[in-house]
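Consider the tokenized backbone below.
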């Protein structure tokens, strides 16, 4: 078993509690245990035993370097933008599960529609592992922000749907292997 890193916060930091999605604040000097550092956020356990998410932009409060997600393709044709959208979504993680949302099978569709010479609108249809998940809006926001930052994207719409419902069958083999489901 791997020992978890205990970190003392260097400043006050905004948090989102898991799994309900409520916002809060942790104070400078408080201790947290790093649970997961994937994508553009950190999942930590507070000294009270609560699991919370800290945004990547607040990495300095943990003594960490902020992460920047790089675009793999700089072209702005529809095909390149769609490939970039999928790559961005592979950097988004459910804060409780160490597998990205694409490999978890949460993303159903991604459409790219040209609206001008070099501008496109993107629409994503995705689901959650459980209906009513409090982290749904947070994950949805991560997808929207990541895709909106891509070159050539004018607007992004992420639709959360519950039909068809998510099941383990939607997971990639890589995800199943990572989670020990084989």
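A designed sequence for it:
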């Amino acid at each position: 078993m791997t020992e978890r890193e205990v970190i003392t916060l260097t400043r006050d930091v905004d948090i989102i509690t898991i799994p309900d999605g409520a916002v809060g604040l942790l104070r400078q000097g408080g201790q947290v245990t790093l649970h997961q550092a994937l994508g553009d956020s950190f999942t930590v356990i507070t000294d009270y035993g609560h699991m919370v998410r800290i945004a990547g932009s607040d990495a300095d409060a943990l003594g960490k370097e902020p992460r920047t997600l790089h675009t793999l393709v700089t072209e702005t044709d529809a095909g390149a933008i769609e490939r970039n959208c999928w790559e961005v979504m592979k950097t988004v993680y459910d804060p409780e599960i160490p597998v990205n949302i694409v490999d978890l099978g949460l993303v159903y569709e991604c459409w790219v529609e040209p609206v001008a010479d070099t501008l496109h609108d993107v629409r994503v249809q995705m689901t959650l592992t459980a209906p009513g998940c409090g982290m749904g809006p947070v994950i949805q926001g991560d997808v929207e922000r990541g895709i909106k930052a891509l070159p050539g994207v004018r607007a992004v719409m992420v639709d959360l749907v519950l039909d068809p419902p998510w099941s383990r069958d939607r997971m990639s083999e890589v995800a199943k292997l990572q989670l020990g489901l084989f």
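The mean pLDDT is 91.
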